[in-house]
Design goal:
Layout (H helix, E strand, L loop, with lengths): L1 E6 L8 H15 L4 E6 L7 H9 L2 E8 L5 E8 L5 E4 H5 L17 H12 L4 E5 L10 H6 L3 E3 L18 E3 L5 H4 L2 E5 L12 H5 L7 H22 L11 H4 L1 H7 L3 E3 L1 H8 L2 H5 L4 E6 L11 H12 L4 E5 L16 E4 L7 H6 L1 H20 L1
Parallel strand pairs: 1-2, 1-11, 5-6, 6-9, 9-10, 11-12, 12-13
Antiparallel strand pairs: 3-4, 4-5, 7-8
């Protein structure tokens, strides 16, 4: 029996790789001779680099860079055997890098992510996958642009400072200094949101409040991003700001769409293609997937949804999802191709206790699933 384990992380308790290992242990308690293929998965957001590096036998590259407030940090990107670099926005520009009391939506910058991209380019990467998500920024990719050599200038010809608020003063963009290596690189944005750069459903109004922006600051940032879009139209005749996904990660993707010809793809589909998921499924008998919480959101571009849909497209075999909890709307996963679900929580407990024992709970849940399968086989 060949079983493919394609699990996301159980956030706060287990990485995707650890979750897959625990599931494999539970399976082999019941079927010791089972051939288990462990594929750590992510949906393009936080955890994507680790998952792809693990699944493709790549390596992590550490770089000295800057956090969203410009403070020195070390962050990593992934490098796959074929030379593809995987960069997560959250690694250097993530919300988790800034305590709630220090969040500054007006001035937070993506410059640190730009340094990661620049390092990958200078080391010879010809393809870069950028995972959009989890950012503390709403700067329209201003910081990344500056790190790659693109100048954002005010009416006096001076460089803009850091942060989305500065885009209100933007008068002209000069791409002449763009790093030459960037021109020959293929950029792919892993993005699951369709928000545009500005407006009621744009980067500022939808995402900036969770990054510490007050209602007034949201209005300031939205107006600044609208000015950015106006300059792009006036100077270059492009409508990038109106494209779906240009508002992802605080508008970060807008720079890549406008100046680097980036393609946008759903995160989970991109991850599955990169690890050649289809080839593993063709000889499989069963797929186990999972994440920290199975609920209505799981059916919209998350790992269980993507894994189940892709599996059923390739081969009609069972797909079972294991979750740290099963919440409201999880039944929507049945329409995506999930055949059954199992919670890791088998008794009354606290959240802290469940997370503290997440590994053994995942292992036990996988064992319960396999015992049911064995009973069905008998």
């Amino acid at each position: 029996m060949k079983i493919v384990i394609a699990a996301d992380s159980f956030k706060g308790s287990c990485t995707a790789r650890e979750a897959a290992e625990y599931m494999s242990r539970g399976i082999k308690r019941v079927f010791p001779s089972a051939d288990t293929v462990e594929l750590p998965i992510a949906d393009g957001g936080e955890g994507t680099v680790e998952s792809l590096v693990a699944a493709a036998n790549g390596r992590m590259v550490s770089v000295d860079t800057r956090d969203p407030l410009g403070r020195p940090i070390s962050a990593c990107y992934g490098l796959l055997p074929d030379g593809t670099a995987i960069v997560e926005t959250a690694a250097a520009s993530g919300l988790t890098l800034v305590p709630a009391s220090e969040r500054d939506a007006l001035h937070a910058s993506t410059y640190g992510t730009g340094l990661l991209v620049r390092h990958a380019l200078e080391k010879g990467a010809k393809k870069i996958i950028l995972g959009l998500g989890g950012s503390a920024t709403t700067d329209g990719g201003l910081g990344i642009a500056q790190a790659l050599g693109i100048s954002f200038l005010d009416s006096d010809g001076a460089q803009l400072a850091s942060g989305g608020v500065e885009l209100a003063r933007l008068d002209r963009i000069d791409p002449a200094g763009l790093l030459p290596e960037a021109k020959d690189c293929e950029f792919i944005l892993a993005c699951d949101v369709k928000n545009k750069l500005y407006g009621p459903e744009g980067a500022a109004y939808v995402f900036a409040p969770q990054k510490g922006a007050s209602p007034e600051q949201v209005r300031i940032l939205d107006a600044a991003l609208e000015n950015y879009g106006r300059v792009l139209r006036k100077q270059f005749g492009i409508d990038t700001a109106e494209r779906e996904g240009s508002g992802a990660a605080g508008g970060l993707g807008c720079v890549f769409m406008a100046f680097l010809g980036a393609k946008v793809r759903p995160g989970i589909e991109l991850v599955l293609d990169t690890i050649d998921f289809d080839s593993h499924i063709r000889c499989a008998d069963l797929v186990i997937t999972g994440e920290g919480r199975l609920d209505s959101q799981s059916a919209y571009g998350k790992v269980p949804d993507g894994v189940a849909r892709r599996t059923k497209r390739i081969k009609n075999i069972p797909v079972i999802a294991i979750g740290g909890s099963i919440g409201e709307g999880a039944e929507e996963l049945y329409a995506c191709g999930v055949d059954a679900m199992e919670s890791t929580v088998s008794r009354i407990t606290t959240l802290d206790d469940a997370m503290a024992h997440a590994g053994e709970n995942i292992e036990a849940a996988a064992e319960r699933v396999m015992r049911l399968i064995r009973a069905g086989m008998q």
